[in-house]
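Notebook, bench 3.
Goal today: get a predicted structure for AsnC family transcriptional regulator from Methylobacterium platani so we can plan the truncation constructs. The sequence was checked against the plasmid map this morning, with no discrepancies at the termini. Length recorded as 163 residues. Pasting the sequence as submitted so the record is complete.
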Amino acid sequence: MTDPLTLDGFDLKILAALQEDGRLGNQELAERVHLSPSQCSRRRLRLEERGVVRGYRAELAPGPLGLAVTVFTKVALATHNRDNARRFAELVRGLDCVLEAHVMTGDSDYLLKVIVPDLKALSGLINDVLLPHESVAHVHSSVVLDTLKEAAALPLPRGPAAG
């Protein structure tokens, strides 16, 4: 775990504005956070260089793309060693339908967030890809019925007042 950077109120305002709309141009961003465009640009660049802002991307709606089924899949490895974990990581990194993959504590080793067009595609993923893989012992999937909250924005710390 890394120590958090020291961010002042202006940095936090910039981050909040960018999380809300990553397409903001420097002039509009500067106006929103009450800084000059040059100060705002320097701060934004510093936040990018330090890895606080990792990138900018469009948020796509899965439905119009035919991605109707979201699933959380727990995976237990067949054996617990570095080579097996590496093989599983390579498998998962190559699967576009896996949106997130987390190493877990508890009764499973990994938790995957998966999105697929339908249950047939999910069955194919489980029965033709995951279970036959040498690194995998068990798979348990739970299909999402409804999503109550799905936030992309991180909760920002409260900092000193800016402006």
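The chain is about 35% helix and 20% strand. The longest strand covers residues 69-77.
Flagging this for group meeting.
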